[in-house]
Amino acid sequence: MSRTNFDQLLEAGCHFGHLKRKWNPAMAPYIFMEKNGIHIIDLHKTVVKIDEAAEALKNIAKSGRKILFVATKKQAKPVIAEKATSINMPYVIERWPGGMLTNFATIRKAVKKMASIDKLFADGTFSNLSKREALQVSRQRAKLEKNLGSVADLTRLPAAVFVVDVLKEQIAVREANRLGIPVFGIVDTNSDPTNVDFVIPANDDANKSVEVILEACVAAINEGLEERKAERVDAEAAAEKQEKGGRQSARVEEEDDAEAEEAAEAPVEE
Predict the structure, then answer these.
(1) Contact in structure between 71 and 95 (CB atoms under 8 Å)
(2) Which of 70, 82, 168, 154 is nearest to 111 (CA)?
């Protein structure tokens, strides 16, 4: 069963593309028609593409790897922050830090700098700083938190990048392409889908459109996380059962050895 349906996407306004003069010809396969100078997206194809993307995202989550969500446009920021946080995935909603992926080691150093500042607060060192130094440190911490706080738990490169508006986030898409990281993207009629591995043709400007697509994808990711958790519990139970069986087997062998020794030591009747 599909994770979304035509009526649901229609109500959310996912079908509204951009003006015809702004279109990218590479999006032609996903365009249903033109109305009043505006391209209308084929929502039947959108439903299929959402299902394909959701299934792939579910498998990535099930493998225990991270998915980085990216949306720096105003209307998509709160949706991305809420949905990504609900499944404990990293996200970027402020300016994309250049080299976030291609120069990941440097980004990690900045995150560690944030942790070292937190340590100053924890051990009381911060209170010994002068007012000027304390102000500088506080401002630096606030800046780092704003730009990198949401990726603080990303200790290695993500397994995939989910982008809202691939035209606006083209630097993030290029970095992911360069490293061979799969890109999932909500792609509007003015964008180029050729650099996106999992294209979701839809309106990337309307809040409701972004929200309904993210809900379907996040639900799939959550399923993957739950299945991973269930498999881990089953594996631990199986290991415990095997260990318990091994102990019982060892105890039986010890008892058999003891009986054999007793039999060997018993006097032989003539």
Answers:
(1) no
(2) 154
Domain residue limits, the chain: 6-98+158-227, 102-156
Q: Specify whether domain 6-98+158-227 bears CATH 3.20.20.140.
A: no
Question: How far apart are the C-alpha atoms of 195 and 72, rounded to whole Å?
Answer: 19
Please name the amino acid found at residue 163: V
> What gap in Å lies between CA 212 and CA 11, rounded to an integer?
10
Q: Give CATH for domain 102-156.
A: 1.10.287
Q: What is the DSSP letter of 45?
A: H
> What's the DSSP call for residue 16?
E
Least confident of 92-96, 183-187, 205-209, 262-266: 262-266
Full-model pTM = 0.84
- Class of residue 9 by CB neighbours under 10 A (exposed 0-12, middle 13-18, buried 19+): buried
pLDDT digits (tens, 9 = 90+) for 164-193: 999 999 999 999 999 999 999 999 999 999
The CA–CA distances, whole Å, from 222 to 62, 158, 214 equal 9, 17, 12
What single-letter DSSP state applies at residue 75? T
- Single-letter residue type at 3: R
Strand order from edge to edge, sheet including 31-35: 16-19, 38-41, 31-35
Q: How many C-beta atoms surround the C-beta of residue 82 within 10 A?
A: 13
Cα 84 to Cα 28, 31, 35, 180: the distances in Å are 31, 29, 35, 22
For the chain, list the strands marked E by DSSP: 16-19, 31-35, 38-41, 67-70, 91-92, 160-164, 183-187, 198-201
How many other CB atoms are found less than 10 A from the CB of residue 138? 14
Tell me whether strands 31-35 and 38-41 are parallel, antiparallel or unpaired: antiparallel
